[in-house]
């Protein structure tokens, strides 16, 4: 039996896509081995969001080729979609497969390549290794063309999974025993705009709520301009949707936002966050920021720092600007030097750690409901569970609690770790 290994880089959408590939190949005559072990076939699901992601994808392919020079290597994902020629030039690569044509992978392995298929969102129910949290991709692609972002070129226009199919998949995942489903998308807030008739994310969430499924729903990133009152009301009154949101800010300087082609101001963002926290006091908001966008002056950066200082958020994801050829920003003047980008990144990461710690401390002695996962903390050997508002809590309970949602009280926050005890 041929051994096969799948490697995944990048975001939650890629994780979902890899699970779909796994599912597609399950029925065939293969045995799956963990990535990093010697296999006959390697499938590499790449990311291209930054130059570093490209580099990591190339390094990984080379490593796999060294591990088994005779292995068949098939490369898919965003990098393969954006630059198939570049990928094919890497030693050891046999095929590249675009996003949305995953069925070709089986044909290629079987030695009967078929012609390229159009982009589509698959409706398979993949399997996820942890069996606690599943990902469901309900949207792919993006029409926004932020000036720094390669994603619309790599993943194409926005397409959504039909509402009925999404509900069916969610019910199926809940039946299979998953206790949390993360709805993912490249631009989740644009869910449904492409469907006939068009619909909205809030309509999908309302239907999920009415379904009365037995697991909780977590939302991946939503753009700031896509929160309307309907969506906020729905999330804040929901028993199913987690009180955890991830919202990209990218910069706190309005002139930078404008050049990024981001359609809001820092004032709009601050008001949105305040409105959300007012509606959901325990809400955990995570924010993305890019440092070193071309032309980002010291003053621009200081604006970002003061906006973040002011925001009642739980954590920060900081990305150094990465020049992606083919995007408008790659040709903008005044590219910021690496040293400055690094320094600004460190400043914001420091702020992010303090925000996170402060947010966690706000829950000391409070009750939370955590979903226990099977992974143990390396130092304490305690099991870890995530609260609905995405606080990772370590708890000394037996493995019979894995995959159960249990009530706990937060007893301590030490060195960035949160401890709890069963109520
Ligand atoms: S919204 Fe902007 S940053 Fe996000 S995927 Fe689309 S183009 Fe990229």
CATH fold-type name of the largest domain:
pyruvate-formate lyase- activating enzyme
Determine the strand fraction and express it as a percent band.
Answer: 15-25%
CATH class membership of the largest domain: Alpha Beta
Mean pLDDT reading: 91
User: Kindly, what is the distance between the CA atoms of the first and last residues, rounded to a whole number of angstroms?
Assistant: 49 Å
Structure class: alpha/beta
Heteromolecules bound: iron/sulfur cluster
Overall body shape? globular
**CATH homologous superfamily assignment of the largest domain:** tm_1862 like domain
- Give the biggest beta sheet: 5 strands, parallel
Number of strands: 18
CATH architecture of the largest domain: Alpha-Beta Horseshoe
Question: Gist?
Answer:
This protein is an alpha/beta fold and 423 residues long. The protein is 34% helix and 24% strand. Strand 1 (2-8), helix 1 and strand 2 (30-32) form a beta-alpha-beta unit.
What does this structure look like?
The protein is an alpha/beta fold and 423 residues long. The chain has three domains: 2-109, Response regulator (Rossmann fold), CATH 3.40.50.2300; 133-360, tm_1862 like domain (pyruvate-formate lyase- activating enzyme, Alpha-Beta Horseshoe), CATH 3.80.30.20; 367-422, Nucleic acid-binding proteins (OB fold (Dihydrolipoamide Acetyltransferase, E2P), Beta Barrel). The chain contains 13 helices and 18 strands. The chain has a five-stranded parallel beta sheet, sandwiched between helices. The N and C termini lie far apart (49 Å). Mean pLDDT is 91; it is low at 114-119. The site of iron/sulfur cluster (SF4) has 10 residues, from helix 6.
